[in-house]
Design goal:
The structure holds 2 protein chains of 2 kinds. By secondary structure, chain A is mainly β. Chain A is built from no helices and 11 strands. Chain A has strands at about 5, 10-15, 20-25, 30-35, 45-50, 50-55, 60-65, 70-75, 85-90, 100, 105-110. In chain B, the strands form 2 sheets. In chain B, strands 2, 4, 5, 6, 9, 10 and 11 form a 7-stranded mixed β-sheet that branches. The chains are: A mainly beta, B mainly beta. At the A-B interface, strand 4 and strand 5 of A face strand 4, strand 5, strand 9 and strand 10 of B.
Chain lengths: ~110, ~110
């Protein structure tokens, strides 16, 4: 099956710092989503981005489908950004289920 | 804003007991998924429905797990009997159609003692 690798696995930032999270995938994908999982376990949709660039406030994402990677940018980080960030892809032949990476655990300190 | 609903939010049970989880997708979403997330890992698909039909249950441990979506709306996932290794977060998701994003419910955190 498709492999989804996220880096870094863990990240500690001071409030106000910027960061870039990376997602590499091993095969062509139909769709790609970024999620933030809060401490209560809720998966919050950040971006639906099979290709191109999108921005939402302090967050932005870029997917280069031809090179099989996606980047999530967090600017001016806040303590509420803490949690686990997941990249999930939908392979062409999956029947539309998402395959998740192992996540990047982010801690933003005051 | 419409959301995926799940209940219960937390469930503690003893091994060999039966448990059931309920999911109500966003209205109009034809596709419904059940995922399982073990601590420290990403969610993994258990079963996928298109309306009332099962599309993919290849990862569902059918000797103890069952899932149904009788009227193509809400869904129930059952485990009988529960085992210690079933302790995990069970997540339900839905989407309107292909080329749309999936939305997740708050999950049911299961602890098997």
């Amino acid at each position: 099956g498709i492999q989804v690798e996220q880096s870094p696995p863990d990240l500690i930032l001071q409030e106000g710092a910027n960061s870039t999270l990376r997602c590499n995938f091993s095969d062509s994908v139909n769709n790609l989503q970024w999620f933030h999982q809060n401490p209560w376990g809720q998966l919050i949709n950040l971006f639906y981005i099979p290709s191109g660039t999108k921005q939402n406030g302090r967050l932005s994402a870029t997917t280069v489908a031809t090179e099989r990677y996606s980047l999530l940018y967090i600017s001016s980080s806040q303590t509420t950004d803490s949690g686990v960030y997941f990249c999930a892809v939908e392979p062409w032949d999956s029947g539309y289920a998402l395959n998740f990476g192992k996540g990047t655990s982010l801690l933003v300190t005051p | 804003e419409a959301e995926v609903a799940q209940s219960p939010r937390y469930k503690i049970t003893e091994k060999s007991q039966a448990v059931a989880f309920w999911c109500d997708p966003i209205s109009g979403h034809a596709t419904l998924y059940w995922y399982r997330q073990i601590l420290g890992q990403g969610p993994e698909l258990l079963v996928q429905f298109q309306d009332e039909s099962v599309v993919d249950d290849s990862q569902l441990p059918k000797d103890r797990f069952s899932a149904e979506r009788l009227k193509g709306v809400d869904s129930t996932l059952k485990i009988q009997p529960a085992e210690l290794g079933d302790s995990a977060m069970y997540l339900c998701a839905s989407r309107k159609s292909s080329y749309n994003e999936q939305f997740f419910g708050p999950g049911t955190r299961l602890t098997v003692l």
